[in-house]
From TrEMBL, chains A, B:
<dbReference type="InterPro" id="IPR006405">
    <property type="entry name" value="Nic_PRibTrfase_pncB"/>
</dbReference>
<dbReference type="GO" id="GO:0004516">
    <property type="term" value="F:nicotinate phosphoribosyltransferase activity"/>
</dbReference>
<protein>
    <recommendedName>
        <fullName>Nicotinate phosphoribosyltransferase</fullName>
        <ecNumber>6.3.4.21</ecNumber>
    </recommendedName>
</protein>
<dbReference type="GO" id="GO:0047280">
    <property type="term" value="F:nicotinamide phosphoribosyltransferase activity"/>
</dbReference>
<dbReference type="Pfam" id="PF17956">
    <property type="entry name" value="NAPRTase_C"/>
</dbReference>
<feature type="domain" description="Nicotinate phosphoribosyltransferase C-terminal">
    <location>
        <begin position="358"/>
        <end position="466"/>
    </location>
</feature>
<dbReference type="Pfam" id="PF17767">
    <property type="entry name" value="NAPRTase_N"/>
</dbReference>
<keyword id="KW-0662">Pyridine nucleotide biosynthesis</keyword>
<comment type="similarity">
    <text>Belongs to the NAPRTase family.</text>
</comment>
<dbReference type="InterPro" id="IPR013785">
    <property type="entry name" value="Aldolase_TIM"/>
</dbReference>
<dbReference type="GO" id="GO:0034355">
    <property type="term" value="P:NAD+ biosynthetic process via the salvage pathway"/>
</dbReference>
<keyword id="KW-0436">Ligase</keyword>
<dbReference type="InterPro" id="IPR036068">
    <property type="entry name" value="Nicotinate_pribotase-like_C"/>
</dbReference>
<comment type="function">
    <text>Catalyzes the first step in the biosynthesis of NAD from nicotinic acid, the ATP-dependent synthesis of beta-nicotinate D-ribonucleotide from nicotinate and 5-phospho-D-ribose 1-phosphate.</text>
</comment>
<keyword id="KW-0597">Phosphoprotein</keyword>
<dbReference type="InterPro" id="IPR041619">
    <property type="entry name" value="NAPRTase_C"/>
</dbReference>
<keyword id="KW-0808">Transferase</keyword>
Length: 475, 475
């Protein structure tokens, strides 16, 4: 299975069309961007760049692929030969993986011969849409958990193998601490773990015996699942008994129990009380059962004494808003070595593209908090020596001036003339960077309901070009 | 990448636990079933069995996997050696792929040594949850489209590679006609197709030239995308001009246009009128833009003259309800060659399992309509010679008697002693079977809002065993 074949058929008909009409080498600029934050939130967390680099580094079509495409009787011999020798030759600019991103800014910009840019489209969108969706969701869940441990355990409800494998990777970048999915540990090094299911307990004549057998095999990794028969009257007493009979005599210092059904606030409080009465104040409580950021927030508001959250289907599918809608739009071409901006008009105002080869600047206060982003022409130079005034691109009287500020250019160059020029950070580095980025957001942007709408404005030069093009086309 | 490693860590700790405690060969029965139909619908459409067979046929752990697991320092040498030589040796019973299924009936039953049954769990659930979710969604969308063509085009918004690849497969089983995703055609033979994006049109000096160039290259496969600049004042006139200047002179008889934004009812009606006025009554109209079964139903109620629906993110992620929640529960073990039923109790009544080795019977009227399903002990024999009375397992006074009826046993044996004994149908056969199954449902079960709750009852013998076990544990 060749990932290059994860491609919408129309990319190939267009590519063959460019080839046949002698346009294939025309340089085009495409922006990858999104329009709306997931879950009505205030930001998104960018993930997937490493997967994209893996893809582009290896991108080629083999004989089998060419034979298959030939059988469609839509593509010319010349084009198929071109495809057989395909190698990406363009430039790619991108936000660093783990960056906080906002609607309408170019997260990734591709400058390449049109035929190549088109061939990248589908897979780039798929990877970034998926991983950004899950990383963002994970960051929200971890935020709700207020520093408590969160474990991703959704493999069984994920939308296929890649959804579980790369979903756990993205969730880790977003802040979760571990996964139940072994392959995500093997492939990416996301820490994996897990203990027992109900079936383990059912296999024994009694819950007590099931716990005891497990404790003897895994004295340092026992988390007793309490709700197979009855959490409070059976699960908790048996767990306490086994901790005292098996674990404490072995010198084990850390114990844990898990509740997987019922009212988690009530049961965690009652369990805590029973554990404390038994002198097991250091026994942690894990809960699971269709959790997400809103349920976790509620549990903690109600004072549920929970130490660890196991989060499954609602994280791995981003259930409450399972589509991250990045698009990939032509914003310019080159003619006679000049950049010619391109626009797509729409009756839906938010679907009008912002033309031209652009870059993104992040404006921060002196402590490094993110205050606003500014999109400019790539050729514009900004510096922090003088005050900076930005304005809302729709309601232009809404202005804001920064006097003391820092400025970071968000785009890194990842590929230059088809060569990767960007050093791949480790997953741990990406995760640390993401957590720093999240900490640089104002709490007003992170809150779940009616968050502050972060400013993403256009430079005056860019704004003028865009509005002139709209007028020329529709005026 | 070895699919065997798509496994929750706890499956392996339990498996090692069974190995270490001498229980590994105890025969266990697990049921895979679900509790709630997606989208509040009346049924689900079972998909994924072929993918499961591919998995089990090849299931093994290689040296690299074993090395990785060894590094976790949780598993014994003996267990790792066992895993290195793992081969499935059990029996699997399953509904045929493409079957209509209902909550709480065992869709798949695994009889195997406990250690093996546990190792299958995660991947089985992942595959069946994903593909059944998408097949069911596709069947709803195709139903709303009332016989019109539906094309799956969600690859860019799918939750990863497998979500797009196997999602298109499942959607095809559910009834969609084609996909945009080339790899699903290459791997599974789902028909693929596609024409042009906005970027194609933007690459030319005018929309007219873009359409003309495309028509010359693909005279028999041109679908003109109308909404790059303005659908009615620009897109439609340019499409008509190119059809008349290029396609008709070439003798082409079939033309098509696509609308991808704006009010699809209004624009399709206005487009139809302009096309008809130009004498192009045989030009079909395709629409796309975040469609699902409810939007399609509304468009058709409003009389939108649409021939083809392109459906993206809301199908490939099952956006309105993106989790299919199958579970995998221990229902029996064997002791001294006797089947000993097992139960899991819960305060949530719907989470109490139905114990024992079971089978499922479908009761149909003389025309083959599905009237009810009956779950019995596997050992029970039913025949249609005498009237059959079934009763609701909760409100047992709710009874229904069938006099003239047909009976089909839904389980096929797929694996016997680890050998696959089931002939794999082709994808086309699975799709045809699924469409027959859908046609055997009463419309009352297929409607979207408040569908009839299809009866899934327990045989008297099974009901008695279950209730006795609950009483014994909680009474």
């Amino acid at each position: 299975m060749n990932k290059a074949m994860v491609i919408d058929f129309y990319e190939l008909t267009m590519a063959n069309g460019y080839f046949e009409s002698g346009m294939k080498d025309q340089i085009a600029y495409f922006d990858l961007y999104y329009r709306k934050n997931p879950d009505g939130g205030g930001y998104a967390l960018f993930a997937g760049l490493e997967t994209i680099m893996d893809f582009i580094d290896d991108l080629s079509f083999d004989d089998e692929d060419i034979e298959f495409l030939k059988s469609k009787k839509m593509f010319s011999e010349g084009f198929l030969k071109y495809l057989r020798n395909f190698k990406f030759s363009g430039d790619i600019y991108s936000f660093k993986e783990g960056s906080i991103i906002f609607p309408n800014e170019p997260i990734v910009t591709i400058k390449a011969p049109i035929i190549e840019a088109q061939i990248l489209e589908t897979y780039l969108l798929q990877v970034i849409n998926h991983q950004t969706l899950i990383a963002t969701k994970a960051s929200r869940i971890k935020y709700a958990a207020k520093g408590r441990t969160v474990i991703e355990m959704g493999a069984r409800r994920a939308q296929g193998l890649t959804a579980s494998l790369n979903g756990a990777r993205a969730a880790y970048i977003g802040g979760i601490d571990a996964t139940s999915n072994v392959i995500s540990d093997q492939v990416y090094g996301v820490p994996s773990g897990g203990t027992m299911a109900h079936s383990w307990i059912q296999m024994f004549d009694s819950e007590y015996e099931a716990f005891k057998t497990y404790a003897n095999i895994y004295p340092n990794h026992s988390t007793f699942l309490l709700d197979t028969y009855d959490t409070l009257s059976s699960g908790v007493p048996n767990a306490i008994r086994v901790i005292k009979e098996v674990l404490i005599p072995k010198g084990v210092k850390k114990y844990s129990v898990r509740i997987d059904s019922g009212d988690l606030t009530y049961l965690s409080k009652a369990t805590r009380k029973l554990l404390d009465q038994a002198g097991l104040e250091n026994c942690t409580i894990t809960v699971s059962n269709s959790l997400d950021e809103r349920i976790i927030k509620d549990l903690l508001i109600q004072g549920a004494p929970i130490d660890i959250f196991g989060v499954g289907e609602r994280l791995i599918t981003a259930k409450s808003d399972p589509v991250f809608g990045s698009v990939y739009k032509l914003v310019a071409i080159e003619e006679n070595n000049e950049i010619v901006p391109k626009i797509k008009i729409s009756d839906n105002v938010e679907k009008i593209t912002t033309p031209h080869f652009k870059t993104v600047w992040r404006i921060m206060d002196e402590e490094g908090h993110f205050d606003a982003d500014l999109i400019s022409l790539d050729s514009e130079k900004l510096n922090t020596k003088k005050p900076l005034t930005i304005f809302d691109p729709i309601n232009i009287w809404k202005q804001k001036t920064f006097d003391n500020y820092q400025l970071i250019q968000m785009h890194e160059i990842i590929y230059e003339n088809g060569q990767r020029v960007y050093e791949r950070p480790s997953l741990k580095e990406i995760r640390d960077f993401a957590q720093n980025q999240l900490n640089s957001l104002w709490p007003e942007v992170r809150r779940f309901d009616f968050p502050h709408q972060y400013y993403v404005d256009l430079s005056k030069a860019l704004w003028k070009i865009k509005n002139k093009m709209i007028e020329d086309l529709r005026g």
